[in-house]
Structures are given as C-alpha cells and as structure tokens.
Amino acid sequence: ARLISSSWPGVVLLSADAPERAWDALADALDAPPPIVVCDDVDRLVGVWGDVWGRDGAERLEELVRTRRDTTVVLTAHRLTGALVRVADLLPRRAVLRSPSRAEHIALGGTGESWDPQAPPGRGLLDGKLVQFALAEPTAEPASIARGTGWRPGMGPTGLVVRGGRRR
C-alpha cells in the first residue's frame, strides 16, 4: 500500500508536506478504509493541491466521511471554505479552538458568546464543554522509575482527563 507511514498502526496521516503521497493515501483509504485517517491543516493540503485537484480531493474526503462508517476521520483546519464546509458539516463532532476574530469563530461553528480572544493555544469547546488540547513531546524515561514498574503509556495516543477549576 502507498499509505503514508505513521507511528501508530492503522492510522493514515495526510500531510500537506507530502501532497502526492497524501493523494495516493486518500485514494487507498477509499478502496481499503483504514481504522483512522488524520489530516492536520486540511485546508492547507487542499490549497497545495490547487484548484482542480483540491476540489477533487475535498470531494474524496467528503466521500470518505460520508460512506466509510468504520473509519474515524480527524481533520484540523484554520479556515473552512468551499468544499471543506460540506466535509466539516458531515463530521459528528467539532472542537472549535481560538480564532483570530469573532466572525471566523462563528464560521468554524462556534458562537459569538464562546469566542475568547485571550484563550491560550489549544483551548476550545467540544460538545459544549471547555477543553484544552496539548501535544507532549516524548521524553526519556525518568531514572527513578525502573523499567517494567509503574504505569507506562503504550505506543498509541495517551490522554489524561481531569476536572478543571473555574474558567479564567
């Protein structure tokens, strides 16, 4: 398969940094749907593909979301325009993070009341709840924890959910 490699088995990554491979991976995903497809900055990828290919690529993404119910599709975008609006409307859940303007926040699916220009990066709303997304860089194992003892995350993504205090 031509799928873009990922450090997690079963996850297909579509990247604007490798648009040709992303195109091939999207075609493969339509033929043999993987468990998870992730595209960070989908608007950038569609832009890199150009007008004709970008429109076709967005339509293929729409087909993937519409017809492949066993595939989880995760897309991030700075802006939703053109065919990407239709794709986003098909996604059952949407996290709306900080936007530069109230108008863009509303265009992404937020409300005027939820727009917070002071929100830190990664802060947003998901299912009406305030959330914080973060990317933690892998670190070396602390010397105080012997190998094979204590809790240790697996190779897949790890999440920690804690009840937050008051919103600031």
What brief labels describe this structure?
14% strand; three-stranded parallel beta sheet; alpha/beta; globular; 32% helix; three-stranded antiparallel beta sheet; 168 residues; disordered N terminus; single chain
Q: Give the end-to-end Cα distance, rounded to a whole number of Å.
A: 48 Å
| Residues in helices, as a percent range | 25-40%
Task: Tell me the number of helical segments per DSSP (H or I, 4 or more residues long).
Answer: 4
Largest sheet: 3 strands, parallel
Q: Tell the overall outline.
A: globular
Oligomer: single chain
Number of strands: 6
Q: C-alpha Rg, in Å?
A: 18 Å
Q: What structural class results from the helix and strand content?
A: alpha/beta
Q: Could you state the order of secondary-structure elements as H and E?
A: EHEHEHEHEE
Order of strands across the main sheet: 1-2-3
- Beta-strand share of residues: 5-15%
Average pLDDT number: 80
